[in-house]
Amino acid sequence: IAQKDYKLWLQYDKTTNAALASEYKNQLQGIVSLGNSETSKISLKELETGLFNMLENKPEVFPEIKGENKIIVGSKSSLTSEIQKAVGSDFDKINEEGFIIKSISLKNKKHILITAKNDIGVLYGVYNFLRLLQTNKSIQNLNIIEAPKTNIRILNHWDNLDRTVERGYAGFSLWNWQKLPDFIDQRYIDYARANASVGINGTVLTNVNANALILTPQYLEKVEALANVFRPYGIKVYLTARFSAPIEIGGLKTADPKDVDVANWWKNKAAEIYKRIPDFGGFLVKANSEGQPGPQNYGRDHVDGANMLADAVAPFGGVIMWRAFVYSEHDVNDRAKQAYAEFQPYDGKFKDNVIVQVKNGAIDFQPREPFHPLFGAMPKTPLMMEFQITQEYLGFSTHLVYLPKLYQEVLESDTYQKGKGSLVAKVVDGTLDQHKLTGIAGVSNIGNDLNWTGHPFAQANWYGFGRLAWDPYLDSETIADEWLRCTFSNNENFIKPIKEMMMQSREAVVNYMTPLGLHHIMDTGHHYGPGPWVSNLSRPEWNPVYYHKADKNGIGFDRSKTGTNATAQYASEVEKIFDNPATCPEKDLLWFHHVSWDYKLKNGQTLWNGMALKYQEGVDQVKEMQNIWNRTKPYVDAERFKEVEMLLNIQYKESKWWRDACLLYFQQFSGKELPKGVEKPN
Length: 682
Ligand code: GCU
Description:
single chain; alpha/beta; 21 helices; binds alpha-D-glucopyranuronic acid; glycosidase
């Protein structure tokens, strides 16, 4: 049943546009494959599969160029000098993972060349080329020169060794540890292929709340097997390192990073791993955060911890991705300020192979957060972005929310740290402060569900994450367009409305969950559904009431000068804007300010009425998503149509649940009637 779903964006449906099909067939009269590596074989197979499915004839494969209209694939070193000449200086414009797709003329015969410095670049070029066909683009006069703008484009799997997935809503973990290393599930290969097709080049296999067992030989043997599967697809394996591992599996009495035995234990562990996996990527570490062990347990700091691990992997070219997701129950004044307060002073103190991984916002993957104040504030330290692809706070895999819209909003935020134009994207791609080590991580939404991600549209979030990791300046609407064409159909009657539906889906979830800057009012623990009333958790900053601070005077968290002064963590230009309710964007108003129920919004509504209308708008938007979806029935296969239809029904029901629960709860404080236009809860 789920066969279409399983194929993700690599459907390779038949090209139905007759003119295009004949253009493609004319220009693609066989493949000349010049490489011999495993990766080259994958490139060839992918081209054969793609062309066979889209054009319905099996392309002939030639070892050398004959005749005309061939598609030539091979890395630089495999090209004849004549072809190299045709490429000219384009090789200088790409990095080790970039590619070139070019219409060339050899002895007056036209061909299409896909080349790169390395075989993996060629593979990326092949996927890009197939995407041209999948999205019905012309392939005449091609001249595409592309290279990824970040080095580490990585999924973070929060997968436990018992195959449960923390915040995973698409079944169990893909990694079948019990059957590894000898049993290689076809899904590992399909997973690698899907990732390579969007340029993802790394995967952290294990949960940030780490289990030290993964570092034992029994497990490393299994990790090695996965690394062997992923390698030809250009994907490096990384692991999470539990800071207390030297005690738990090493028999030491301490995990103090300044202890020589501890440092040596990690050095030996790294050597052991690299012996098995020579291209092992390195470690991702969550330390002294939410109860995880870390250097502070021994009176040391994050720099001591990260640098000790960095020394262990440095001889092998490994990196340490050290997370900045820290907050403590001992300083409950404002959780949003803690990561900056703790990490900013460490700027410049980390070793060269450490990159600090920062969540997109200062709290925790909310439907909307202002960009994290650390971006741009640590110019001497490489920072990488951590987005969440799994929808922990956005309706799990039940609600349709197109996340690249959220990612784009963050990436194009201006930090002003080096004046106007200091975009978060420039921090991430290293251009703002000239960093060579760069990266973007996405907390994976993948599980062993037949459709990988639980919701068919959640596949777009995996896809879009990969595309934005490759190029953080891409437009989310373009990505949605591509994804829809590759996944469903090129029919404009389908594309246009569904693209609009996707594009408004993120704002819809903000409206029916947390409009106007509200945040973290989801029910406790699981974070599904509303829970603004929750106030009894042991740690104050886990309670929703801590975040909305509703009382009879109004609602919102005062993070301005008159409150916690979190605004001062931003560059002065940004601080000024956020600090004043009149200039603070209304979408962030209650994030930064506690305002009265009668506060006048820009549209003239009082805060109470405006907020209620936003909740209603969210519900209406979901209704509209349903209407749009229902009209697409002729263009979608029955299974996927039905699945999305059922999911949208749930989403609609739950958007009303959110609206009613939040408005009834907040109404106790506002003491006001619901405005006209807002449906009364029943
Ligand atoms: C959130 C999430 C946890 C996760 C943590 C993290 O708090 O709820 O499950 O472990 O983020 O990112 O480390």
